[in-house]
Amino acid sequence: MGNKSGSGFYLSKSTVAFFTLLFAALFIAFTVFAVLYLRSRTGFCNFAEEEESDKVKPLNCTVVPTPGRQGIWDHYRLPTSLVPINYQLVLWPRFHPESPESTFTGDVNITFQCKNATDVILLHSEQIEVTVVELVRFEIGTEAPQILEVWRSSLYSYLVINLNETLTENSIYVLRISFSGVVPKLNYHLLSVYTDCIITTQMEPTYARTVFPCFDEPSFKATFDIHLIYLPNYVALSNMPAINTSPISDGDGVIWKVTTFNTTLKMSTYIVACVICEFSHIEMIEHGNEIRIWARKSAIENGEADYALNITGAILRHVMDYLNVSYPLTKTELVAVPEFPASGMENWGLIIFHEDSLLFNYSSDTKEKRRLICSVITHEIGHQWFGNLVTMNWWNQLWLKEGLSSYIENTFPPKLETEMFMTITWHFLFMQSYLQDFSYTNVKQDDLWHHWQKAIDSQNEVKLPASVKTIMDKWTMQTGYPIITLNTSTGTLSQEPFDAKRRHATSANNTWYVPIEWIKNGSAQPLTWLKSKEGTFPEMKITSENDWILLNANITGYYRVQYDALNWNRIINQLIKDPEVFLSLFISGILFLSHLHVEEFNKVNNTFIIHSVFHFFFNTRDQMQRVMSVACWLGFHECLQMASKIFREWIKNPTKEGLPLFIREVILSYGIESGSFQEWEIIWNIFLKQKDNKSDYSDELLFALSFSKEPWILNR
Ligand SMILES: *[C@@H]1O[C@H](CO)[C@@H](O)[C@H](O)[C@H]1NC(C)=O
Ligand SMILES: *[C@@H]1O[C@H](CO)[C@@H](O)[C@H](O)[C@H]1NC(C)=O
Ligand SMILES: *[C@@H]1O[C@H](CO)[C@@H](O)[C@H](O)[C@H]1NC(C)=O
Ligand SMILES: *[C@@H]1O[C@H](CO)[C@@H](O)[C@H](O)[C@H]1NC(C)=O
Ligand SMILES: *[C@@H]1O[C@H](CO)[C@@H](O)[C@H](O)[C@H]1NC(C)=O
Ligand SMILES: *[C@@H]1O[C@H](CO)[C@@H](O)[C@H](O)[C@H]1NC(C)=O
Ligand SMILES: *[C@@H]1O[C@H](CO)[C@@H](O)[C@H](O)[C@H]1NC(C)=O
Ligand SMILES: *[C@@H]1O[C@H](CO)[C@@H](O)[C@H](O)[C@H]1NC(C)=O
Ligand SMILES: *[C@@H]1O[C@H](CO)[C@@H](O)[C@H](O)[C@H]1NC(C)=O
Ligand SMILES: *[C@@H]1O[C@H](CO)[C@@H](O)[C@H](O)[C@H]1NC(C)=O
Ligand SMILES: *[C@@H]1O[C@H](CO)[C@@H](O)[C@H](O)[C@H]1NC(C)=O
Ligand SMILES: *[C@@H]1O[C@H](CO)[C@@H](O)[C@H](O)[C@H]1NC(C)=O
Ligand SMILES: [Zn+2]
Q1: What residues does the Peptidase M1 membrane alanine aminopeptidase domain cover (predicted)?
Q2: Nearest residue to 166 via CA among 119, 115, 112, 116
Q3: Which of 331, 340, 434 is CA-nearest to residue 390?
Q4: Helix, strand, or coil here: 557?
Q5: Nearest to 353 by CA among 386, 304, 391
Q6: CA distance 687 to 672
Q7: Cα separations (Å) of 523 from 519, 552, 582, 585?
Q8: 515-543 per-position pLDDT tens digit
Q9: Ligand 7 pocket, 326 CB below 6 A?
C-alpha cells in the first residue's frame, strides 16, 4: 500500500491513500477489537478466582462482603469521580531463570484527586494478591476517611475499597497498596519470563492491572515513578532514563539492585513498560535523543541490530519534522525480545519488538525483511505521537492511533531508502494541529473529524460529498458494511447493507458514503462517491465489446461488490486471456468478490496463479497479510480456497522457507482447517521436530494444528 514511487508526494494520490488508510484502519480495529473481546470472553485470561467477590486482606476490614451486591462496580467503565495524578511504583520480580514460575512483589502509592465526592474507591486489579495498607490525605494535618472494607468484584476486575465517609471534592489523597503475583512463563501478557532470561511487560490493552493495581483505562493518564529491583548481573529498562541506583538486601542476605527511573510524562497505563534482561546494546545520539537497540548479546555481536540503529534516528527525525511536534523524551530504547507476542509494542520511550521485526542478519536475510523492519519501526515511532502523546478516549477508537500510525508507516519508509523529500501537504497540517491541540490528553473521534474538516476546508484539491463527520459517522456508527451492485447496462450503482454471517444483503435501510476506486479496461478512473442508496454513472456503462469494469480494485474500500453476468463474463475472459496483466486485480478482486463461479475459476491456469500469487504477495506484503487473515477469518470462500490451494502445493515439500513469513500462519492455519488427517499428521511431525528450539515457527505450527475441525484430532 506504500507509495512506492521514490520521490514526490502527489496530492490526489495521497488523498486516496489517506482515505484508504482510514478505512483499512477502521476495519482492522474492528477486527482486533472483536478478537480481544472474544478472547476475554472465552477464558483467555481466566484464572482460578471466579466467584462474584473475593475478599482480600485489608488491614482494617470490619465488614464481611456480601457476594452479588450491587453498586458502581457493576459498570464496565470506571467512574470519573477519582482521577489519578501519579503512581510511585516498585516492582521486584524474584527472578529464578531455572524455575518455570517466579513470583513478584510490589508497592504502589497512587496519588489521586477526588473530583466528585464518593465513598467508594474503584481500581482495576487482576490475578494479583493485594493488601491495602493505608489511605492518607495529601494536605498535612487533615484526616482521610477510614477504610471499612476491601474486596474484589471479579466481573470487571475491580478492587473495591469502601470508606466510612465520602472523600472531599478537589482534595488529593494517596493510597498505599502492597501486592504480589506470579510471573507467568510464556503467557500472553505482562511480566513474562522468556528464554535467555528476560522479563518484559506487555500492558496493552488491559494487562497493567495484572502487574499493579491501577486506573487501567486509556483516558486515566498520570505520571509514573518506577523503581525496579533485580539481581546486579541484569539490566533494567523502563520508559524513562534511570536516574539512580542503590543496593538492597533481601531476607536471605542476597544483594539486589534498585534502579529508579525519572518521572514519566503524563500517560496511559497501557504504555507503561519494564524490561529486565541480560542483553547488551548499541547506541547513537540523534538530535540530543539517545537511541539504543537492545538484543541478545550474540545478536549484537553479529551486528544484527545495526540496521535498526541506522534507520531509527532518521525515522524519528523525519517524523518529528513533518509533524512539527518535538519528541518529548530524551531517550528511545528498542528491545528485541524472542517470542514477544506482537511484532512491536509502542511503550513510550521503551519500544519492544519481536526479534523478527527488529534484527537483521546481513548475510542471510532478504531485502523484504529489511522493509518489514523499517515498517514496523516506523509504525511504532508513529505511535509515540499518535497513541502516546494523543490517546484515544476508549478502546473502541483504537483505530485513531492505529490508522494514523499506519499512515506514517506507509508514508515514510519508501522515502528513507532514497532521498527524503516530501512536500508538507494538508495531511500533515491536519495532523500538526491535531497533535498540538490534544497533546497529553485523550481524543474522541469527533475531535479528529473536526480537525480533518478544518484541513479539508483550507484547501482546494480535495472535495468531499459531505462533511467529514457525516461521512465517517456512517462508517463508525452503523454496524456492517454495504454490498455495491453495478448494473453495467445502465451504469447504476446501488448499495445495500451486507450481512456477513448469512452472506447476503439485509433488509435494513442503512446507507453509506462509499468511495469508489475503479478501473475500466485496465486503467484507473477518478475516485467516485456513491452518496445514497442508488446513483447512476454513465461512464460505468459497458458499451463496446471489450469493456470491463472492476470496482474497489485495490480492495481499499470496506465493501463488497456484485456485478451483472455480462461484466462477470468479461472479467473472467480477461483473466483467462491475459492473466499476468490482470493478476493483481484478480487477486484483490477474488478475496472480496465472493460471487465468482467456481467452474469459471477452475478454467483458469491454477499453477500459474499459485506461483504468481507468491510473487504478488512479496510486493504488497502488508496489505495482503492483513487482508488474507481477516478475509479467511471472516470465512470468505475464495480466501479459504486460496489458502488451501497454496497449502496443498506447499505440503508436497514442506520446508519452513517454502512459505513466506508473513502469510505462513494464515496458510498453515486455514490449510489445516480444510485439510485431511494426513496433512495434520505431517504438520504435527514437523512440530515435534521443531518444538525444542522454541521458535515462532513452532508456535505457528501449534496454532495451526488447533485449527483442525475434527474434534477427535484436537483431542490428541
Ligand atoms: C486501622 O486504621 C486505624 C485508623 O483508622 C489505624 O490507626 C490502624 O493502625 C489501622 N490498623 C492497621 C492494622 O493498620
Ligand atoms: C509510599 O509512601 C510511604 C509513606 O510515605 C513510603 O514509605 C513508601 O516508600 C512509598 N512507596 C513507594 C512505592 O514509593
Ligand atoms: C461531578 O461534579 C461536577 C461538578 O462538580 C458535576 O457537574 C457532575 O454532575 C458531578 N458528577 C457526578 C456523577 O456526580
Ligand atoms: C471516619 O473515619 C475517620 C478516621 O478514622 C474519622 O475521623 C471519622 O469521624 C469517621 N467518620 C464517620 C462518619 O464515622
Ligand atoms: C528528570 O526529568 C526532568 C524533566 O525532563 C529533568 O529536568 C531532570 O533533569 C531529569 N532528572 C535527571 C536526574 O536526569
Ligand atoms: C547505515 O547508513 C549509511 C548511510 O545511509 C550506510 O552507508 C551504511 O552502510 C549503513 N550501515 C548499516 C549497518 O546499515
Ligand atoms: C514548527 O514549525 C515552526 C514554523 O515553521 C518552526 O519554527 C518550529 O521550529 C517547528 N517546530 C518543530 C518542533 O519542528
Ligand atoms: C546470520 O547469517 C549467517 C549466514 O547465513 C549465519 O552463519 C549466522 O549464524 C546468522 N546469524 C544468526 C544469529 O542467525
Ligand atoms: C426501510 O424503509 C422503508 C420505506 O422507507 C420502511 O417501510 C421500512 O420499514 C424500513 N426498514 C427498516 C428496517 O427500517
Ligand atoms: C491500485 O494500486 C496501485 C499500486 O499501488 C496503483 O498504481 C493503482 O493506481 C491503484 N488503483 C486504483 C484504481 O487506484
Ligand atoms: C439493469 O437495469 C436495467 C434497467 O433498469 C434492468 O432491466 C436490468 O434487469 C438490470 N440488470 C440487472 C442484471 O439487474
Ligand atoms: C500454466 O502456467 C504454468 C506456469 O506459467 C505454465 O508452465 C503452464 O504451461 C500453464 N498451463 C497451461 C495449460 O497453460
Ligand atoms: Zn500500532
Answers
A1: 307-419
A2: 119
A3: 434
A4: coil
A5: 304
A6: 13
A7: 5, 13, 11, 11
A8: 888 888 888 888 889 999 999 999 999 98
A9: yes
State the distance from the centre of ligand 7 to the C-alpha of 287, rounded, in angstroms.
15
Alpha-carbon span 95 to 200, nearest angstrom: 12
Q: Choose from 268-277, 498-507, 698-707 the range with maximum mean pLDDT.
A: 268-277
Is 402 a known ligand-binding residue?
yes
d(CA 421, CA 615): 29
Cα–Cα dist 348/272, whole Å? 7
Residue 365 near ligand 6, beta carbon < 6 Å: no
Neighbours of ion ligand 13 (CB under 5 A): 402, 405
The residue among 222, 266, 261 whose CA lies nearest residue 111 is 222
> What contacts 547, CB < 8 A, 6 or more positions away?
488, 520, 521, 570
Provide the 8-state DSSP code for 252: T
Contact yes or no for 321/416 (Cβ under 8 A): no
CA-derived radius of gyration, the chain: 27
From 39-53, 385-399, 603-617, 659-673, the region with the lowest mean pLDDT: 39-53
Question: What is the Cα–Cα distance from 21 to 3, expressed in whole angstroms?
Answer: 12
The ligand with the least distance to the CA atom of 144 is 4
Residue 148 pLDDT exceeds 60: yes
Task: Report percent pLDDT > 90 for the chain.
Answer: 29
Query: Which atom of ligand 5 sits closest to the CA of residue 244?
Result: 13
What cell does 711 get?
474434534
Name the band, by pLDDT with cuts 50, 70 and 90, for residue 582. low
Spatial contact of 406 and 379, defined as CB atoms under 8 Å apart: yes
Q: What whole-number distance in Å separates Cα of residue 218 and Cα of residue 79?
A: 13
Please give the Cα distance from 82 to 674 (Å, whole number).
52
Provide the pLDDT for residue 591: 40
User: Among 651, 665, 650, 652, which residue's Cα sits nearest to residue 695?
Assistant: 665
Separation CA 132–CA 58 (nearest Å): 5
pLDDT tens digits for range 642-691? 788 888 888 888 877 777 666 777 788 888 887 777 788 888 888 877 76
